[in-house]
Amino acid sequence: MGSASNSKKEVIRLEREAVIPILKPRLIMTLANLIEHSSDRAEFLKLCKRVEYTIRAWYLLQFEDLMQLYSLFDPVQGARKLEQQNLSSQEIDVLEQNFLSYMFKVMEKSNFKICTNEEIDVAQSGQYLLNLPITVDESKIDKDLLKRYFAEHHHDNLPDFADKYVIFRRGIGLDKTTDYFIMEKVDMIISRLWGWIMRITRIEKLFSKKPSARVMNDQKKDDEITNDQYPDDMYVERVRIENLNISLRSLMSKITIQEPTFDRIIVVYRQASTKGEKERGIHVKHFKNIPMADMELVLPEKKNPSLTPMDWVKFLISAVVGLVAVVGSIETPQADFWVMFAILSAVVGYCAKIYFTFQANMVAYQSLITQSMYDKQLDSGKGTLLHLCDDVIQQEVKEVIISFFILMEQGKATLEDLDLQCEELIKEEFGATCNFDVDDAVHKLERMGIVARDSIGRYYCVGLKRANEIIGTTTEELVLKARQENGAS
């Protein structure tokens, strides 16, 4: 399989995520196998179960309130339930703000972050599989719900569209696509040829656009980004067709392009109200593995893409330039037919390139939209909230177990040392990296009563058997024991 070589390396710097990217069963069994004595191993496994049961109990009432509130704002059945409640408009406003408050707290606990303008600028600074300008039809989206929420709940670095919809993201992955990309290669060759003609004729100044100040201030050259400047960040390389050395020889060979992805994306918005009825439904949609450069796929209420104003300008200017060049060639005493033919061919070819590229991109867009609906969308509404609630529990259980294990094996430690040792354990045993949330983990261990601090502020844990005694037998264990006894009898 052939490949095109990189002519320019494009690297994106990303902050490390706080989420622990390890399945809980694998985490528990790996740590248990590191314990030497079988009796201690059994006590550790019992402690892990009791920790999970305890954390689930802590969140049970909060999650029930969240789900009950959402049942009133479910886009499918919420309107009927609101009618049954016979609430005033002001009371409904209070309830929907309470729901958003609960949901945003769960998002934070589940390590989801609101996409900022800077992150979206970086994500959309390149192209991957989607090559059409996608915009939101703002007339179809409510602008009051989120505006009122953020007016009462301050958040830093909110994006420009935060009054209409919010995009939460969590986790970083990598998507690779290997194909011939023949049309894209031809398009790139024509674009480069046309760019060369425009530079020679100095027409490119008509099309040059000044980058936004925000992007200019945030972007750095690849050789300026070093691990010394940002030691805790991760770096992902973008491999795009635009940055590859494409030639006629490599036109018929396969190439591999890659793009960093947002592992999980959740979009929250409300549709605009109609004249006859006020819309109360709140849409919560959950997506997975969305390439950063194609994140427009998750935008709500998208407009049908069309040729951009710049494309039409290029059409007109190309036609005018071609006409002027042909007329100028005819008026010369020695008009060369082949020169006129070459000029007309270049102009017609460029216009055809714009049109057929748009048509090909439309086909690709429809395919990507279908894929995002069936493959990329995990869930929506109540299903998404259930995912979030379980994510919170799983994440916090893993944080508590890792922190306790380190204190059990390494002895007393300061908060900073414990944080570092937890991250090293994750990297050494599982080959993963994360920005471990040690503060939250230690707080829960102290709340359970199995971790305390000495006189100089170092943390230490009680023994495994004593930890199980302090937490005590949980309701889940009693239920399981009763089932086993009934099954035996």
From TrEMBL:
Entry's transmembrane regions: 312-331, 337-356
Domain of life: Eukaryota
Tagged with keyword Iron: no
Keyword Ribonucleoprotein recorded: no
InterPro entries according to UniProt: DUF3754
Keywords, comma-separated and alphabetical: Membrane, Transmembrane, Transmembrane helix
Protein name listed in UniProt: Aminopeptidase
